Amino acid sequence: MKIKEKWSLPNLKEAARRTRSAVERVDQFYIPANALDLGEGKTYAISTYGCQANERDSETIAGILETIGFRPADDLEHVDLIIINTCAIRQNAEEKVLGEIGNFKRLYRNNKNLVIGVCGCMAQEDAFVHLVLEKYPQVRLLFGTHNIQDLPVMLYDVMVNHEKVVQVYSKEGEVYENLPVKRFGQHKAWVNIMYGCDKFCTYCIVPYTRGKQRSRTMDEILKEVQELKDAGYKEVTLLGQNVNAYGKDLDEGIDFATLLEETAKIGIPRIRFMTSHPWDFTNEMVDVIAQYDNIMPFIHLPVQSGDDEILRRMGRRYSAESYLKLYKKIMDTIPNAAVSTDIIVGFPNESDEAFEHTLELVRQCQFDNAFTFIYSPRLGTPAARMEDDIDMDTKRERLYRLNEEWNRHALKKNKAYVGKTVTVLVDGASKNNQNVFAGHTDTNKLVNFTGTNVRAGDFVEVLITDAKTFSLDGKAVEL
Ligand code: SAH
Ligand code: SF4
Ligand code: F3S
């Protein structure tokens, strides 16, 4: 494949650079006149992988596409534009994406005008972009996480000039305000409070794919939350790879505790936030969460490992003991708090004993929920240069034992809800039965319940009648 001069290809090494240069803040969204109605009469579909940052990016992509005339497709057989927003966090996430790109080959064969675009975190990886250019000619547009705002221009080049476009910048990144957004949810919304990450945990690709930590100003965030409240939204989730570090890169002396408190004062019924890194979790944050009823008592607090040596090699900068101390502080201060976590097994050098330390930590914390992963080396990260010395059978066995352990505690925690009445924000009705609904408690428990006259977006009091590992069952308390 000949590389065109016009293309911008990613470079993971450059992406790791951090300078002291100020973050550029861009308020204007620009669409060239000739692209204003580019999508008129055309349809689009977006396929999103990965975390909430990607979900929120897809809402921006949809917003931009609809601004230039595209409409959502009902039918993939006749769609004009497919965008695949990818995730690079683990090898299996990447494999799923490659499978999907492969599947779209057939659609492209039947419709040579179909534009298939690939964006997101995988597009920031040199090896992936080269692979796509070599092996997947049906992909006509590749753009990175820093290039979304240029979508109208890129699409013009693809659709009108019939060029293949590759535009992936590997840079620290800007903060764009006022980009169009099409929210996918009607009652719950994502609100970015910061972009990027500077933590460089040794296993993790995110600081390379998302650039440096850039906080939005508090004014912009509060304005967005106010607008969402005025539009009738019931819940916002403040998003960042590490929300606790919010504001450290601003000159304003504002931290996450202040932002949380100001957001709470707006009075939107439910505020969530994720993800919290244990390293930056202050006592002030714990106190603010405890103080305001509309800040949900649910904290996603990834621990990754319960072994100090592994934590050190992961670059997490806390010990099992300090994590436990923070956990205890949260549980003692915030009434009815629930904590979930992320754990990686099979990190290089993880001995049986080290893994036992993780199990021990899980026993002590009794997490409400956990996301558990087998370590996956990511090219370009420091851990990928360590010997991946744990064999796959051992990794699988550890994952199995870990899941057994946390499932046991989660079930026990859920059983404690039986007989209690909880407030549920309703997501919607079950597809199969119009009198069965699903929603979440303040502690983020999924509740399936029966009731009448219930609508999505309602707050409903539900009596819990049964508990499973991953959900609760109940019935609406009729008033
Ligand atoms: N910013 C968040 C994590 C985002 S990635 C935080 O710091 O907590 C979500 C989770 O994916 C991580 O918490 C980690 O458990 C897992 N993960 C990240 N890189 C991984 C890798 N290379 N292999 C396996 N799991 C990984
Ligand atoms: Fe990755 Fe660590 Fe940043 Fe989370 S804090 S995104 S795990 S580097
Ligand atoms: Fe995946 Fe990128 Fe999120 S790698 S987890 S989509 S930041």
TrEMBL record:
Its EC number is 2.8.4.3. It is an enzyme of class 2 (transferase). Keywords: Transferase. This is tRNA (N6-isopentenyl adenosine(37)-C2)-methylthiotransferase MiaB. The gene is miaB.
